[in-house]
Amino acid sequence: MVKKLILALFLVVLGINLHAQDKKFQIHTIAFYNVENLFDTIRDPKIYDEEWTPDGAQAWTKKKYEKKIDNLTRVMSQIGTDENPNMPVVIGVAEIENRGVLEDLVRAPAMQPGDYGIVHYDSPDRRGIDVGLLYSKKHFVPTSTSAHTLYIYDQLAKASAGGKKRIYTRDQLLVTGLLDGEEIHFIVNHWPSRVGGEKASSPNREAAAALNVKIIDSLQALNPQAKVITMGDMNDGPLNKSIKKVLNAGGDKKFVQPQGLFNPMEKMAKDGLGTLAYRDAWDIFDQMILTEAYLQEGYDSWKYWKAKIFKKPFMIQSTGQYKGYPLRNSNSEPGFSDHFPVYIYLIREQK
Predict the structure, then answer these.
(1) Residue 181 burial (10 A CB sphere; 0-12, 13-18, 19+)
(2) Rounded to whole angstroms, what are the CA distances from 332 to 55, 159, 321?
(3) What letters, b where the CB count within 10 A reaches 16 and e where it falls short, cover 147-178?
(4) Higher model confidence: residue 335 or residue 331?
(5) Mean pLDDT of the residues in the chain
(6) Are strands 303-309 and 152-158 parallel, antiparallel or unpaired?
(7) If 0-12 CB within 10 Å is exposed, 13-18 middle and 19+ buried, where does residue 262 land?
(8) How many angstroms separate the CA atoms of 324 and 317, rounded?
(9) b or e along 119-145 (b: 16 or more beta carbons within 10 Å of the residue's beta carbon)?
C-alpha cells in the first residue's frame, strides 16, 4: 500500500499522465554528509591528530568514538526515508580520518540493511582528513575509481627551499559504476577552507572548481551524455565564484545548456536555507550538482527528481547560544556534525 501511494505521488508531482497500474518507477537516494572530525582514537604520527586521542585536547576515548559512530549512522540510515523507504544507495562523506572509520560506520547496526561497500584513498591533507564513498552493493557496482590531487600554493608564504609553499588539501574522489545497470559517475569533494578569510582564500576553491571541470570534461569527452553527480562540502555557497563562475552551475533547469551543470541548492540558498551556520548566518556549503543529462525528458534512464537538506530535531541544538544550529561535539559529549547532510532523489521507469 505504501509503495502504491509513493508511486501515485511521483506521477502527480512529475506530471506524468499515466495510471499507476500502467507504469512502475524506481527511486534511489544519493546523499552527502560532512561528518565533522571522524577520527579514531589511535595516534598516527604521519598526521596532526594528537587532539583526537584519549590524552589529547578532545579526550577522545573509545566510548566517545563509538557514540559518534552511533550518532552518524542514525542519521545516515534515515536520509531520504520520508519519501523513499530504502536507505541511500550512495553516501559521499567528508572529514574522515582513514578507511578504518568508514569500516566502523558500515559495520554499525543501523547500516547493516544497506550492506555498504567502501571507496577510499588517503589524501595528502595536513590534518589527515579524507573523503570517501559508501555504496549499496546490491544496487551499485564500481567499475573504476581514482583520486585527483589538487595542487595549490600559499601566495604569501615562501617555502624554506624557495618558491611558493604548497597547501596540502583533500583529493577529489571519482567513482564510476553501474547503478542498477546504468553508468553513473560520482565526484566527492571537500574543497579548501576559508582560513585567512573568504576573499583571500577564494582562489584555492576556484582551483578546486577548475579541477572538477577538468574531470567532468574528460568524462563528457568520452560520452557527451555522461551522468555525473559532483557532491561535497565546497566551503563556498551556490552563488560564490567557484560554483557560479568556474563550475558555471546554474540554479534554473530551464537555462542549463547541453553538457552544463544544474545546482538545485541555489534556490535553497536564495530561500534562506542552510546546511551550516556561522554567527547566525546560514549558508549551503554542502551541495550536489548534476550534469544536464539528468534533466532530459523521459524516465527510461535515471533522472533527477528533487533535492533536500536532511535535518531532524535530534540533530539540532535545542538550547543555549547555538540553539537551532547543527548539534556538533561538545567538550563532554559527542554530537552529530556541524553540517546537515544533503541528498537528491533519482527516479527511473521500471521496464
Answers:
(1) exposed
(2) 14, 39, 17
(3) bbebebeeeeeeeeeeeeeebbbbbbbbbbbe
(4) 335
(5) 92
(6) unpaired
(7) buried
(8) 5
(9) bbbebbbebbbbbbbbbbeebbebeee
Q: Which residues contact 291 (CB under 8 A, 6 or more apart)?
A: 216, 220, 226, 227, 228, 229, 259, 260, 261, 262
Q: Are 65 and 71 in contact (CB under 8 A)?
A: no
Q: Given the C-alpha cell 560564490, which residue does it identify?
A: 240
Round to whole Å and give the CA distance between 318 and 195: 29
The yes-or-no verdict on residue 12 having pLDDT over 60 is no
In whole angstroms, give the CA distance from residue 298 to residue 7: 16
Cα–Cα distance for residue pair 136/91, rounded to 1 Å:
9
From residue 302, alpha-carbon distances to 28, 120, 341 in Å are 9, 25, 22
Task: Look at the block and give the residue holding cell 568520452.
Answer: 222
Residue 122's Cα: distance from chain center in Å?
A: 17
Residue whose grid cell is 617555502: 159
Residue 322: how many other CB atoms lie within 10 Å: 16
Separation CA 173–CA 188 (nearest Å)? 5
* Residues 78-111: tens digit of each pLDDT: 999 999 999 999 999 999 999 999 999 999 999 9
Helix (H) or strand (E) holding 283: strand 281-283
Neighbours of 338 (CB within 10 A): 20
Tens digits of per-residue pLDDT, 143-191?
A: 999 999 999 998 766 655 566 899 999 999 999 999 999 999 999 999 9
Q: Is the pLDDT of residue 4 over 50?
A: no
Phi/psi for 107 (5° steps) reads -85, -15
Q: Extract the C-alpha cell encoding 134.
A: 559508501
Burial class (CB in 10 A: 0-12, 13-18, 19+), 328: middle
Summary count for the chain: helices (H), strands (E): 6, 17
Section 253-281 average pLDDT:
96
